[in-house]
Amino acid sequence: MSRKVSSSSFGAMEQLQDKHGQCDSAQIPGRHDSAERRGQSLHRRSNTESSMPPAAASNKESVPNKENVATNYDASRRLSIGEGVVYSAGGTQVGKRRSITYAEAGVAARRRSLAYSDLMAVFYPPSTMSQPTVTEMPFESRAWEGVDDRQLEHIPIDEPGAAASWEPTLERAIKSIVSIKAQCVRSFDTETSGTYTATGFVVDADAGLILSNRHVVNPAPIVAQAIFVNYEEVELQPVYRDPVHDFGLFRYNTKHLRFMQPESISLAPHKAKVGMEIRVVGNDAGEKLSILAGTLARLDRPAPDYGIGEYNDFNTFYLQAASGTSGGSSGSPVLDIYGDAVALNAGGSSKAASSFYLPLNRIVRAVDLVRRGKHVPRGTIQTEFEYLSYDELRRLGLDMAIETKMRETFPASQGMLAVRSALPKGPADGSLRAGDIVVAVNGQPVIDFVALEDVLDSSVGSDMHVSVWRGAKAYDTRIGVQNLHTITPSRYIEIGGGVVNEVSYQIARSYGIPVGGIYVASSGHTLGSASVWRGSVIQSIGSTDTPDLDSFAHAVSSLRECSRVPVKFFALDQPYKPKVMIMSVSTHWHAFRLAEREITTGLWRYTELGELQAPARATEAQLASVWQLPASLAPGDKVWPSVVLIDFHIPYLVDGMKSTHFLGPGFIVDKSRGLVVCDRDTVPISVGDVYITVAGSIVLVGSVDFLHPVYNFAIVRYDPRQIGATPVEDVRFHPAYLSGEKKLEQGDSVYVVAVSADQNPVVRRTRVSSRSMVTTKECLPPRFRCLNVEGLKLNDQPSCQGGVLCDDAGLVTGLWTSVSSQDSHNKDITTMTGFDVSILRETMQSLAQSSSSSSSSHPDPGSLAQSSRYPDIYSLDVEFWTIRMAAARTLGLSTARVEQIEAQANGTNRLLYVLGMLTTNTPASKLLRTGDIVLEKNGRLVRDVDQVGIIHGAENVELVVLRDGNEVRLSVPTTKLDAVETTHVVHWSGALMQEPYRAVQEQVRALPSSIYVSCTLYGSPANSYGLRPGMWITEVESTPVSTIADFIDTLRRIRQTREAEEATRGSDPSASMARYVRLTVVNRNEITRMLSLRLDSHYWPPWELVLDPSAIAGWKSIHYL
Asked: 1015 and 15 in contact (C-beta within 8 Å)?
């Protein structure tokens, strides 16, 4: 089954994806209707008395004059009999048709037949009758009301074109059918955030009411616009969504529709008949207007099933036809030939051309109440019923006497209602059972859903008397009718980027669980740290039970920031298996607030729930003992006291990230200052929460201090005062290997001391199998990759998360790390690779110097990178690779140079050449060329990549390169690289923007600007209007912008100007266009586009993240409401 909504949701965020949201793959990311303007000539139908038969406008009983009737009567309601053969007694003659009356055409007789059918339809809804079929002539329009059968004798049929036709009907109807563009801005209940298109139609032009499906109007917070056939756009307010049935209502301001006035499409549920020819008009498969023909085939189809955990309709019949509607046609009217809606398009089968339509019986009532500004009462006993035929009911034990009586009372019915399920702890739990046959309600026989719901909706807050047949006995019971709206959530809480709401009736019915509890609609950053994913139900946080939102808010508010607490929950598909996980409390990245829906406007109002208590300061140290490894694991026992475990959680997908949780080992290099070395597959970026587990027992909150821009390592910090005298040790490096005097070579024997996936020690003796350049691929989206360094491979590599290589004395000679990259299909891959420990040399020397100059043995936590305690790193901005001597000779390397190189050979005869440029906007990139073979650096032969891969402390180097067969001397300026590259992230309209980082510059020829979109969030304006990750913003409202500061200043000026204009313009409908902002953007292929984004500061307010060593996790969040 497929719901008829054309959706382009991307996940919670988009990133250079092609799939969905947070990241345009990366959107969560939206694709909205892009159909071209139709060149149709549409005419408004005049709504005057002259379009009605005279008898309808007169109270006189006299028969109107034949000529007057013929003159005033609208030709669109006449029948036409064309020219043809006329038979006479004398033979056959050819001539014009003779004029006949409607009575002679059999209209009166047909009327009586249809009147009887319509009368029967009132007492026996079509869903429960034997299915009547239409006659050969089409149904009459409303214009015939008031014209009796005697008058038909005097109304001639003498003009061509009088037969009912689809053309004028559709021409009139399409003015009232709209294309709906909507963004679900938050995941909520059964819905997920994203962008979609659908259809609706005007049912009250005076009140501005538009009918569509429930899954279009949406129980979640949405922002929607309707586009009429003349391309006028109006803002929509979701004013009603039914808790169960698939319909809802939008309202628009009729004053904002200036160039056309649509007519109301009437709802005529009684006119639905099997065999009726219909037209489904709407936004089909993204097309703004499609007209699909069909024929009603069933009136009693069961409600379609869209899957467990999804929204599903029940306790109603559906109509079925083979109209073949597809995505985007949700909410389309199912029209008869006179333009009345007989049903509402809702869904269809993905395996057949069948479409499913919701009957309008209950919709008519809801529309009338909403039109009059009244509440729509809905009752429930939390029970699902099904309609079964009599043969199935007999198998359930139905007594023949009851069947006989019901058949006599309802001769058109072919079955009765039975209980399919009753929810535990619901009003009917213990009173009704699956298989119970409903005989009567409140003493009246009931055989269809409409009559049953009539009783439920009129009995809210009181009891109803239900008579059922169970097995071979009759049972009577009284059941309290519950307000259905009270178990349909209208509130949610945003916590740590996630969304929770109370378990709804829809969710409870889908999984057969009681209504109530905290349902996770989106896990986000905080709940995701405990693997509490969407589809979970939280039972308690810490020691506090959470049966509802208020208790959940209280439980979270009592916690401290950066604390760790147990969370008890269960997955909906396994409610019998509760789980307990540890949640890291982190609300400083996102808002912590309660949202509640306004009934009259559909807008969700926010209430801030306040900030959590600050992290607890260490008043006394936590102590733990370090696991002493047995002698069989030597020399691991020498290394293990320095091993820690690092948990890293990312709140936003910036810097090219596609995942949010990373785990790996680290090694203490300075216990006095709490410094730990790990690989960049464990801590890939600086934006995130760091949790460090010491001695397998103490969990500390850390921060990112240093990210090496080229090599695969990072340094994080913790407060050493929190572990006191816990016997941790600094990892011991082998002096010769740390200085670079020695390097591990092929065949060398080493010990691998590592951490397994279950966090146990792994110790293995093995040998180096190979040494070669590390190969990594440019990633999509762009992110850090390790390059310009040699790596080691081992024989019999152990399965582990990472570790070190050491000798039998436990002195570290190399690092054993996880290297992240992507394959040819841009799927993330990791490989275990060893590195010379000498890549840490400059960093360790800088740390030693800063340690000796520090006056405090326990300095306050802060960023070492910001205090210049790490070495200055420079780069030539090129990627190097090896080339063999034979290839170098072919490229023109002289014999003398070959002899010089071979005289100083260190076991290899390879040289380095420039494989490619890492950027095109630096001096080095303009001097060096792809294919240059680097021979000398500052007068010394270049044999190892670590001589040129990075440059320490030198702003300029002298190189000799082989280019086009000639040796060329170059004085090449170097580029200083940042230790923590990203320092500022801006959120605007659902887009996360930052300065282009090094990996981005590698993949473009030139930077269009310094405003790079790294991520877009599902359901946001950015996601909906085409602003994609991997784009640069170059202009705002035709004003050039080159930096993020320019972008912010320009937006501020535009806002101030528009606020001043709106103050003078007042309530002018054109003021709504001020919500749009035009952007000029450039993608990585240097293609320029103009986008217009509809601003939404309510659901998507602007904010910034600024690097701040004094803040929690080293980042300060600034929100602008």
From this structure: yes
Catalytic residue among 24, 204, 242, 246: 246
Yes or no: say if 303 and 318 are a contact pair by the CB < 8 Å rule.
yes
Q: Among this protein's residues, is 215 annotated catalytic?
A: yes
Q: Which two tokens stand for residue 14?
A: 């988009």
Angle between helices 449-457 and 361-371 (to 10 degrees): 30
Q: How many residues does the chain have?
A: 1121
Alpha-carbon gap, residue 901 to 895, rounded angstroms: 10
Give the span between the Cα atoms of 206 and 228, in whole angstroms: 16
Check: CB of residue 1110 under 8 Å from CB of residue 1069: no
Closest of 112, 172, 125 to residue 343, by C-alpha: 125
The rounded distance, in Å, linking the Cα atoms of 77 and 1100 is: 53
Q: What's the CA angle centered on 210, arms 209 and 213, to 5 degrees?
A: 135
Asked if 727 and 745 touch (Cβ cutoff 8 Å), the reply is no
Cα–Cα distance for residue pair 979/864, rounded to 1 Å: 10
Phi, then psi, of 435 in degrees rounded to 5: 100, -10
Residue 694 phi/psi, 5-degree rounding, is -105, 135
- Phi-psi map region of 486: left, alpha, beta (phi>0 left; psi -120 to 50 alpha): alpha
CA 391 to chain centre: 46
Q: Which of 8, 329, 413, 1020 is catalytic?
A: 329
Q: Judge whether residue 114 has pLDDT over 90.
A: no
Contacts of residue 103, defined as CB under 8 A and 6 or more positions apart, other chains included, come to 149, 152, 153
Cα→Cα distances 459→376, 428, 449, Å:
13, 15, 15
Is residue 237 within 8 Å of 223, Cβ to Cβ?
no
User: Cα separation of 61 and 67, whole Å?
Assistant: 17
The pair of structure tokens assigned to 154 is 């005097």
Longest dimension (CA), the chain: 130
Percent of the chain with pLDDT strictly greater than 90: 69
Helix, strand, coil percent values for the chain (each to nearest 5): 20, 35, 45
CA 772, chain centre distance (Å): 42
Distance (Å, whole) CA 3 – CA 588:
38
Confidence of residue 148 (pLDDT cuts 50, 70, 90): low
Q: How far apart are CA 228 and CA 42, in angstroms?
A: 12
Amino acid at site 142: R
pLDDT at residue 928 greater than cutoff 50 = yes
**Does residue 11 have a cis bond before it (omega within 30 degrees)?**
yes
Q: How many CA atoms lie within 13 A of 581 on its CB side?
A: 19
Question: How is residue 993 written in tokens?
Answer: 């923007």
Which candidate in 7, 8, 9, 215 is catalytic? 215
781 cis-preceded (ω within 30 degrees of 0)? yes
If you average pLDDT over residues 41-54, what whole number do you get? 33
Whether the pLDDT of residue 701 is over 80: the answer is yes
Helix spans in 1025-1093 (H)? 1044-1065
Q: What is the pTM of this model?
A: 0.83
* Inter-residue contact 539 to 570 (CB < 8 Å): yes
pLDDT of residue 903: 84
CB 183 within 8 A of CB 1018: no
Nearest to 1095 by CA among 1024, 1031, 1040: 1024
- Cα-atom radius of gyration of the chain, to the nearest Å? 37
Q: Is residue 43 flagged as an active site residue? A: no
Is 329 annotated in the active site?
yes
pLDDT tens-digit readout, 330-349: 899 999 999 999 999 998 87
Q: Which amino acid is at 304?
A: P
Contact yes or no for 247/212 (Cβ under 8 A): yes
Q: What is the pLDDT of residues 195-218, one digit of tens each?
A: 999 999 999 999 999 999 999 999
Q: Which of 475-484, 655-664, 792-801, 858-867 has the lowest mean pLDDT?
A: 858-867
Q: In 829-863, which positions are buried (b, 16+ CB within 10 angstroms) versus exposed (e)?
A: eebbbbbbbbbbbbbbebbeebeeeeeeeebebbb
Distances (CA, A) of 249 to 370, 376, 449, 568, 750: 9, 12, 22, 38, 71
